[in-house]
Amino acid sequence: MHIVVNEDLKAYIDPLTRDEHDALERSLLTEGCRDALVLWGDVLVDGHNRYGICQKHGIPFQTLQSTLFKSMEDVHLWMIDQHLGRRSVSDFQRGVLALRKREILNDRRLKAEPAVEPGSTAPDTDTTSASAPANMAPTEPLRSRDDIAKAARLSSSQVVLIEKIQKQATPEVVAAIKSGTISLNAAAAVASLPEEEQIAAAQGGKELLRQAAKRVRESKKRATVDEILDAAPDSVDALKARISELEAENFKLRAQLAALGG
Q: Is the overall model pTM greater than 0.85, yes or no?
């Protein structure tokens, strides 16, 4: 039987810890592969870890053809939703998955939009929902950052940090956050450094990453203070001018009251 392990799909699969892998391997060797591997055509959709172990030890397995999908996009969306629903998935990974889901849905919407002739009006249809297979629940587009945050069970500010990390962080820093060596906030701070500094910090381990993040935060604080100090002279001069105006107005009022009293 020819089975294709799609590398893009593997990106959605959290690697097992050594203990988890060993436990699954013992179970398969003792009890065999009781649950069928799910395929779409010859593409493996569910059961990647079991498939790898079965291949290693020559353990027989059954397969089940899924009828849920009409395209590889459907497979990607299904796997993303499966992982977004798992508690063991980290905040960073959930954010990455939700952002990838938005990309897929946006691409699908653009492909499904009919060409509009000049002077004509595009039909008002929900192309994203219409393109979903009949036996799959329609998938709503993620139109805003709040939609992404809701899908990933994160805050909008966390989504902003993850977007920054995706755009600016080196693979070494991304690996550090995936391993839990560095927090989301710290990784976003380190991601603002030049690439060579990010790599050096990641190679130095947790302590150097922490120091790099602290250095970035302190630099931003200093910049903010400098901006306030730079603006201070103008603010003081404006305040002095306003005081002079008020004093002049007060003098006039006193003179008018004195005149009335006289």
A: no
